[in-house]
Amino acid sequence: MSELFDAVDALVASRSSLPPAEERKRLRIAHGLTLDEVAGALKVRRATVSAWESAKKPVEPRGPEREAYARLLGQLAELYPAPVPATFTSAPAPAEVETPSAGPASEPAGAPAHVTPQVPASDLVDPAPAAARRAASNARPTSTSRRPGTRRAAPAATPAGDTDPRFENGPLAVVDVDDDGQVLAYCTGGLVLEVPAKSLPSLVEWTLKEARLGQPKLSGPGKDADPLLVLTKAALERYGLPTMLTEEERLAGRLPEGHRVVKQLARAEWKLTKRGFGPWARIYRPAQGSERACVQLCIPSWNALDTRHWGEAGKLPPAELARLLGVYAVRVMTPRGSTAVTGLELMTALHPATRASEPDADGKRHSEHNPGSLGKDPVDPAPCEAPDGHPLLKDLPRFHVRGPAEKLFEEAYDWARPMTDAECTLRHLVGIDVNMAFAAGANGLTVGLGAPVHVTNPVFDPKLPGSWLVDLSHVDLSRVKVGKDKWADLDAGLLPSPFTPKGERPQGPAWYATPTVAYAVELGYDVRPVEAWVRRENGRYLDGWYNRLRDAYLATMADLGVDADLAPEDFLTAMDGYKDRDPELAIVTTAIKATVKGGLGKLRERPRGEGWRPGEPWRALSRPTWRPDIRAAVISRTRINLHRKLVKHAAFTGQYPIAILSDCVVYAAGGPSPLDFLPYRDGKPLPGGFKLGINPGLVKHEGTQSVLWGEEVRERFNAPELNLARYIKDGTVTDVDNGE
Q1: Average per-residue pLDDT in the chain?
Q2: CB neighbours of 184 closer than 8 A, spacing ≥ 6?
């Protein structure tokens, strides 16, 4: 009889009407269920459940999934009856002119440094935080609440454990307009706020007074992160802004001063930073004491989210975009511009230039230098560290080309060689890529904090950061140390030199960063510098920066199913198609890696138009974070880290690389997998060699092509030393790239 009853229940469920999409979502959230949990229970995709709850175009479930879904909604409806509609009047838009209460945000800020453990991405998707979901079975039924000017899908989610009540709604919001003309702010955690503001100045006022957006500071002396608003095309139209910039505006990077919205802001006593009203605009009022009033705008349709680093993020629906940017903001910091700008700002957020002093005799505190930071004033580089066109070099002849003995040239590898006859008998070319190689190069690195000091005939000190003029042409890779008192004989013609980006053996004295010279000593050779520019004030400035970016990357990869402690075979399996498991989170990993490279690149930012002429200063030189010596030290150490592994691998296996491009290395192998040439024994890698894994400094599979492919490509372009590492990922070669 029970089978008959079950059949009757299923028949009724298959024809019964389901509640509206908004009610479906309300019931799920009220019980603390995520989209993933419902999808898993019903054995459908997450996107399917999301479509069932779509307010604009709800999709109706069918078949057995409909029966199960109807049963779920029915049980939830008994637990959480629909609330009685509340009658209220929307809050009026704030006046466009108010008394100034805060100041500009020149100092970066972001998520707190103590946000550990890293937040599961699922906690940033739905309004109910993990703790609420775990406690759902013990919670009493509740209903959703509404307050004037606010729509809450459920109690606000808090990605980090202890919520700062000032920022209870998260670090950012994506502002959009629904079909009924209501302006909505989509926050992290699935929260949606109703926005009463009728103009851009009133939107800024509302954000600062009511939205409760922002993030606590990253370090004690730092500043809290300003709220970030991401404006969709619909929001731009609502607030009188163009959905696209004209070609002239795009080249200028901003709206003209005479635009009516810019004038609107000025009338309301709001100011814009020097970059003006562009894709990443900052709107503020001058500081009053320690109070701040600043809101940052991100405008995707003005190319604020570079597709090279953010993929198709700018085209995502508001809720999905809020989730993606929210994960990045919580784990890295609230974006302050491009990933490069954010990478640089993260350094300063972790090491602010100043701090409050101890109280003086009158009990007052003063601003003083923050130890371990780069300070608030820029310092000149050593002449050898200055890039061409720098004011320090203005007295050089106009067309003078500096050679290695005049210019520090620490760059990543771009090296390749012809294959040997033995390698041509193998079937595959296998590329491996070092995870976050430059982040790993920054980890534990001692860098200069202050100005350089010139020294003649110095004794080399591997612990002293600086630039050294020394002849390393005597270092012979055919016989090198590979351990304490352990020497190895190698085929030097099959290895790149560790001292030049092109892998060529140096021909005489040249300038090198400390890690490069230290490696020559490590290989067993004496060094005698002629002169040096050293920095006696130094420290491990980038350690906190590395740790935060590493943790962000590992947490996001773990959400994508790639854990840090997987066995080699399991790791390769987990990496296969990992981006398809959650394309939004995959974009976050790309953005994190771009934050590393871009932030380091900003340390030696070159002129960007500005009417600059060689010998004149450019804008970036006014930053204390314009430090080409730190960039050079990180790149030097990254290249040396890679060469050390090449030597260990060659000494143990007799295998040599065929091509290297930055952090990608190609070997010839008998099989298509990295495990076909990496010397694992009982699951353990060669000590000091390459190791498969997701941690920074470990390697992953970059791609595999056939040896025949490699030979055909080189023959087609008549380039025996064409760098195959550039094309190993997908095998597509459209033209010879000289690497410039």
Answers
A1: 87
A2: 151, 175, 176, 177, 178, 192, 193, 194, 195, 318
